[in-house]
Amino acid sequence: MASPTSNLSPDVDRGHLPSHYEPRGRCGHCNALIDGKVFMWGGHCGAAGIPDDHRNVIDIYDPASQRWSQQKTSGPSPPGLIGAACVGISPYMYIFAGVDTDANEYCNTIHQLDTRSLVWKEVKAVNPLEAPMKQAGARMVSYSTSLLVTMGGYGHLPDTPQPRADYVADTRKGCEGQGWTNELGVFNLTTRTWSWPSTTGSQPPPCQDHCLTRVDQSRAIVYGGWQLGKSVPNFIYILDMHSWVWDTVTGGAPGQPWPVARAGHTAVSLHEADSGATDPALLVMWGEDDKDDILSDYTLNAQQWRKMMLPDSLRGRVYHTTTILHTDDTHKQLVAYGGLDEEPEDDDPDKAVPLADTTVVEIDSSGPSGDWVVIDIIPSSQLGHPREKDSLPSHVQLTLEEEMRHL
């Protein structure tokens, strides 16, 4: 697919791009919501290759204008461009691990971007030998304002395994010394030290490309992921980061729907992490299953799983990002960017054609049933322009009409 930046001349001032700027298509990138804006880092551009300036710019989406801009950064940027984990703690964006495309190596460093000055710096651990293994495909959340919690990933198996972690070796040819882990590492930003909490309960298996999503002030949910070429069991693992206790939900009641196992998906909490809500509401989007089929469903877990109805035009993706914007308790915007909507030839990432596409999906739960329904979909071509809401597909419209009849 066309990438707007591929046609820009080298002397373009990327700090003042035209208002219609759209980031280069990518997959395996990461983003964080900081002070109301989405900051996006890295990613694999497939057949287009890695842009020369990829390490020296940051893409920023402003929901108020529905526009992207690209800004220059300075300082030592993260080596991990693909499969890095990130989280925002205002005013900073933190990047952990990923694939160093310059060295063709995995890494396990932490870098911090000051989103006010756009200056990077490495946050060097005082005990680097205690860091998680060098990897990509891990996930990370924050706990309080000083702790970064990482889990899982694929990379170089450590010479000295962590006693509380499990590892699965990759037996494929050419992958000697590599594999998956369920390492649970905690980095203290104040003391700059890594630690390994002693947890109880059944922890997730070693995996990559799962989700790790904070759902309230102290809990995070792990769901999905894969190892050895197939998805891990699609259980729900809930981690209490105050007590370091894992709670596992292995399946629903007879007849209750349960989503297909998947990896490369995204998941967001419909409650703000600090809202005080006690019942998790996790929305899982897209991904791919064991057959390498890209899934096109939105599946909500709020006490039980159920699918949200979506128009056929909203195609599924894998290795994308999704950010949730909390307008109020009953109205949310989901901003999805990039990813793949079809598998590359021969599973070769260098032959992939990532999407250069932003899609905003509005969902609402103000109807009598309290169920979340899609009320609008805004494609890239309409972002930033005055518009009337399109007529939604009949199967979505019928749901809204049913809601209205109960008013």
Helix content: under 10%
Distance from first to last alpha carbon: 44 Å
Low-confidence stretches: 1-18, 391-407
Structural class, by secondary structure, is mainly beta
As a percent range, the share of strand residues is 35-45%
Order of helices and strands: EEEEEEEEEEEEEEEEEEEEEEEEEEEEEH
Number of helices: 1
User: How does the major sheet shape up?
Assistant: 6 strands, antiparallel
* Rg estimate, integer Å: 20 Å
3D architecture notes:
The structure is a single chain. By secondary structure, the chain is an all-beta fold. Helix content is 3%, strand content 38%. The protein has one helix and 29 strands. It has one helix at 394-405; strands spanning 30-34, 37-41, 57-62, 67-72, 80-82, 85-89, 92-100, 105-114, 119-122, 135-136, 139-143, 147-156, 167-169, 178-188, 193-195, 211-214, 219-223, 226-227, 230-231, 236-240, 245-249, 266-269, 282-285, 298-302, 304-308, 321-328, 331-337, 358-364, 373-378. The strands form seven sheets. Strands 10, 11, 12, 13, 14 and 15 form a six-stranded antiparallel sheet that branches. Strands 5, 6, 7, 8 and 9 form a five-stranded antiparallel sheet that branches. Strands 1-2-3-4 form a four-stranded antiparallel sheet, with no helix packed on it. A hairpin with a 2-residue loop joins strand 1 and strand 2. The protein is globular.
